[in-house]
């Protein structure tokens, strides 16, 4: 999962993020509401963890603006110490999909996030872009009926790009999917992985799906079908 944590308590945000990363997730952080709104608007997150008491822009206002102004339907789990029924109802009314009160179990939080992502994706076990199909249960990738063999790194990159399709995935996000918080100093390593992935999923086929958006990142899409 690609997760945004909007939380002004640095220790709590770090604890949540470290746990999620141990489960194989990619995590971004925002310590205030305005930064969180900006990140949520420009990136393709699978799910948001949103605190209510935030500097700059509170969580309820962030959620409302994201839903109404930006038309963004990313699943949102509100995380807060406010535990009255009125607080929960207000959270749902502004667009939250789930509500978890502090203190909480990291394991429960992560299971709730996975459930939100499954629900948003229609509980699909397959990612499909044009004639490219990725079976997430068996990790089998096929294009045009032909089975393709990818490395574990190639699979991580492909899943990220297919989930975001047809949107652009920024270079830093792809690097984080491969190397976590310790990317190489040069972009040459990433270009090497992209070249290898392109050779597997595109080279044998007439329609090219993997595009480089110079200076920004990469996208996977059949532009002729858009």
UniProtKB/TrEMBL annotation:
<keyword id="KW-0805">Transcription regulation</keyword>
<dbReference type="InterPro" id="IPR001789">
    <property type="entry name" value="Sig_transdc_resp-reg_receiver"/>
</dbReference>
<dbReference type="GO" id="GO:0000976">
    <property type="term" value="F:transcription cis-regulatory region binding"/>
</dbReference>
<feature type="domain" description="Response regulatory">
    <location>
        <begin position="2"/>
        <end position="117"/>
    </location>
</feature>
<dbReference type="InterPro" id="IPR016032">
    <property type="entry name" value="Sig_transdc_resp-reg_C-effctor"/>
</dbReference>
<dbReference type="GO" id="GO:0006355">
    <property type="term" value="P:regulation of DNA-templated transcription"/>
</dbReference>
<dbReference type="InterPro" id="IPR011006">
    <property type="entry name" value="CheY-like_superfamily"/>
</dbReference>
<feature type="modified residue" description="4-aspartylphosphate">
    <location>
        <position position="51"/>
    </location>
</feature>
<keyword id="KW-0597">Phosphoprotein</keyword>
<dbReference type="GO" id="GO:0005829">
    <property type="term" value="C:cytosol"/>
</dbReference>
<dbReference type="InterPro" id="IPR039420">
    <property type="entry name" value="WalR-like"/>
</dbReference>
<keyword id="KW-0804">Transcription</keyword>
<dbReference type="Pfam" id="PF00486">
    <property type="entry name" value="Trans_reg_C"/>
</dbReference>
<dbReference type="InterPro" id="IPR001867">
    <property type="entry name" value="OmpR/PhoB-type_DNA-bd"/>
</dbReference>
<keyword id="KW-0238">DNA-binding</keyword>
<dbReference type="GO" id="GO:0000156">
    <property type="term" value="F:phosphorelay response regulator activity"/>
</dbReference>
<dbReference type="GO" id="GO:0032993">
    <property type="term" value="C:protein-DNA complex"/>
</dbReference>
<dbReference type="Pfam" id="PF00072">
    <property type="entry name" value="Response_reg"/>
</dbReference>
<feature type="DNA-binding region" description="OmpR/PhoB-type">
    <location>
        <begin position="124"/>
        <end position="222"/>
    </location>
</feature>
<keyword id="KW-0902">Two-component regulatory system</keyword>
<protein>
    <submittedName>
        <fullName>XRE family transcriptional regulator</fullName>
    </submittedName>
</protein>
<dbReference type="InterPro" id="IPR036388">
    <property type="entry name" value="WH-like_DNA-bd_sf"/>
</dbReference>
<feature type="domain" description="OmpR/PhoB-type">
    <location>
        <begin position="124"/>
        <end position="222"/>
    </location>
</feature>
């Amino acid at each position: 999962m690609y997760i945004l944590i909007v939380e002004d308590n640095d220790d709590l945000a770090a604890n949540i993020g470290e746990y999620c990363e141990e489960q194989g997730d990619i995590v971004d952080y925002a310590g205030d509401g305005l930064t969180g709104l900006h990140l949520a608007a420009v990136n393709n997150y699978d799910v948001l963890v949103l605190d209510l008491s935030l500097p700059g822009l509170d969580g309820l206002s962030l959620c409302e603006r994201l839903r109404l102004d930006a038309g963004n339907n990313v699943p949102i789990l509100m995380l807060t110490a406010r535990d009255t029924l009125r607080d929960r109802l207000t959270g749902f009314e502004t667009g939250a999909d789930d509500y978890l009160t502090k203190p909480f179990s990291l394991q429960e939080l992560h299971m709730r996030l996975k459930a939100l992502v499954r629900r948003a994706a229609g509980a699909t076990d397959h990612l499909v872009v044009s004639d490219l199909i990725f079976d997430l249960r068996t990790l089998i990738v096929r294009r045009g009926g032909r089975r393709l063999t990818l490395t574990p790194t190639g699979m991580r990159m492909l899943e990220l790009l297919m989930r975001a399709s047809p949107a652009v995935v920024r270079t830093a996000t792809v690097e984080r999917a491969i190397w976590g918080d310790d990317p190489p100093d040069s972009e040459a390593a990433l270009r090497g992985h992209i070249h290898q992935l392109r050779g597997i999923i595109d080279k044998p086929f007439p329609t090219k799906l993997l595009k480089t958006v110079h200076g920004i990142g990469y996208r996977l899409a059949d532009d002729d079908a858009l």
